[in-house]
Every structure is written in structure tokens, then in C-alpha cells.
Amino acid sequence: MEIYDSAEEEDEHEQFVRWFREAWPYLWAHRGCTFVIIISGEVESNPYYLNLLLKDIAFLHHLGITFVLIPATNIEIHKPLADRGKKTRDNSRLHDVDASAASGNFVAAKIRGVVTGVDYGETGEVKKVDVRRIRERLDCGDCIVLLHNIGYSSSGEALNYNTYEVGTTFSLAIEADKLISIMDGPILDDKCLVQFLTVEEAEAEADMGRVERVHLLDGIKGGVLLLELFKRDEVGTMVVSDVYQGTRMATESDFSRVRELIQASGELVRRSDEELLEMILLDCFIVVERESQIVACAALVSFSEEKCGEVASFVVSSDCRR
């Protein structure tokens, strides 16, 4: 039997075990996935926040997640391009956190030119993504791919991309599992975190609405990437094109999870497995799903003759309670 020195130490152990159990399904779900991460210029230019972020990325990389990083060096680039044609420098901090980085001319550019009377000068658009070469580097599993928002046209001109356009186009081209934007603050509405955005709302924030799963994270918050990926209740803003969370009638295949939720509550009337299954088959149970995981359930048993009903169950997973 393990003996703790204090109640506080016991709480810390319990919290770690609870967190690890919650994170475990995501460890397997994310393994082998490809994430494209845009790092805002404000975060990139701050060594403290950048180092924390890169350490977490290196840790996840060693867990089997492949990454494409796109530093948004717009703070310097949005100034007049006096040094036209000068190549941007790769960030060597990736090597400091024990991760190999591969960079290259993976994206072909073209001049945006004049659009509706506006001359975009040296601003470029993505013309083509070299998916084969980028996949070769990702599939080898030993390096993180690094992109920049400076590209070159067929005539050798250095052009400044819109970083979010590069991230979106690149994510779609390589069929990335997630596009993550590390911003210099959270998205708030009346000082409250906005947890979900529609595609239209996301496009108003940045041109990122075409990717199936987009995460907008506060890069000033330490460990934000780990918290977002491995906790059921995210700490950032999620943009999804499909149903991220919703309710539906329970089916027979939900029996085990519904029983688990009810047993964990410890406060409901005891029912046998047969009684519980019968209630599910009679459409008494409604479940709440989040990312295909049942996080809550409720049951209403109707007594038509008496014109009343019984709330037979109302359970929310402890991981989701606020």
C-alpha cells in the first residue's frame, strides 16, 4: 500500500492518474497523424513562449505524431521588402529540443498581381505544393518539416504569402489531420473563451475554414498544445466542418458506456443489465457525444396512462463537469 506524506501529495497523484487515464485514448488516436501548425509572429519572436512550444512539439513528435511547422514571420515581412530575394533563416531551436528539421522549396508561388484595382505588389499566391517530396520527409518519421511564408516564382522572384492561406492549402494538399494556429492570445467574446466557431466565423478570423479540423490556440498559455490535444475539454477554439458535439438516442452498442457512466455516479436506482438494456431498446435513453465519445446520458420513462414520466437517469462524465 502506497503511503503519501500529505493530503496535497495524494491529490497531486490522483490528478495525474485521472489526467493520464483521460489522455490515454488520445495518445493512440493521434499516433501516426499529421498536424500542420502555424506559429504567429508574436509567439515566434518571444524566445520564452517559443521554446516551451517547441519542447511540446518535439515531445509529441517522439510519440509518433508528424508535424509541419509554418512560422508566420509577418512582423518583419510586412515591412517593405528591401532585401528582396534574401532567404529566410531556419529556426535552430528545433535542434536544441532534440528534433531534426527539414526545410526546402516545397511550395511554388505566383504573383497575385492586380485584383479589383488593388496592386498586391510582391504578395504571392500558392501555385503548387510538392506533395511527393514533403511526404517523403514526413513518412520517414525522423524529422519535422519547416515551411516559410516566403516563396519563389518560376522566374526567381521572392514573394510573401499569406501564412494562413499557405497553412490551409498545404493542409488540404497533404490531407493533414489537423490545422493548428498558435496565436498571441485567446479568442474571446465578452471576456469568455469562444470554444467553437462555425466555418463562416472562422473565415472571418482567418482564411482557415476549409480544413476539416482547425484549432485556434493561445500561444501565451504554457502547455496549450498538450492541453488541447489530450484533454476532452479543450482550452482553445475549435472549428469543425462536421458535428463535433451533439445528442442522439442511445443504441444497443452504447450499453457498456451508459452502464459505466451510471455505475460511476453511485447515486442512481440500481437496475440490472437486462433492465438497463431494455430501457435503451425502448428509446428511453439519450446520450451526448463529443468527438465520438459518450460524455453524458439521460433517461426518461414515460407513463402514458398516468400522464407523467420518471427522470430515470441524468449523468455527466466527471471529466466534463465545470
UniProtKB/TrEMBL annotation:
Cite the InterPro entries for this sequence. AceGlu_kinase-like_sf, Acyl_CoA_acyltransferase, GNAT_dom, NH2A_AcTrfase
Q: In which pathway does it act?
A: Amino-acid biosynthesis; L-arginine biosynthesis
Alphabetized GO MF terms: L-glutamate N-acetyltransferase activity
Query: What are the record's GO terms for cellular component?
Result: cytoplasm
| PROSITE patterns hit by this protein | GNAT (PS51186)
Whether Transferase counts among this entry's keywords is yes
Record's keyword annotation contains tRNA-binding: no
Q: Which residues form the N-acetyltransferase domain?
A: 245-322
- List UniProt keywords, sorted A-Z: Acyltransferase, Transferase
Tell me where on the tree of life, at the top rank, the source sits: Eukaryota
Q: Which GO terms describe its biological process?
A: L-arginine biosynthetic process
Which PANTHER family has this protein been placed in? AMINO-ACID ACETYLTRANSFERASE, AMINO-ACID ACETYLTRANSFERASE NAGS1, CHLOROPLASTIC-RELATED
What protein name does the entry list? Answer: N-acetyltransferase domain-containing protein
Lineage at the top is:
Eukaryota, Viridiplantae, Streptophyta, Embryophyta, Tracheophyta
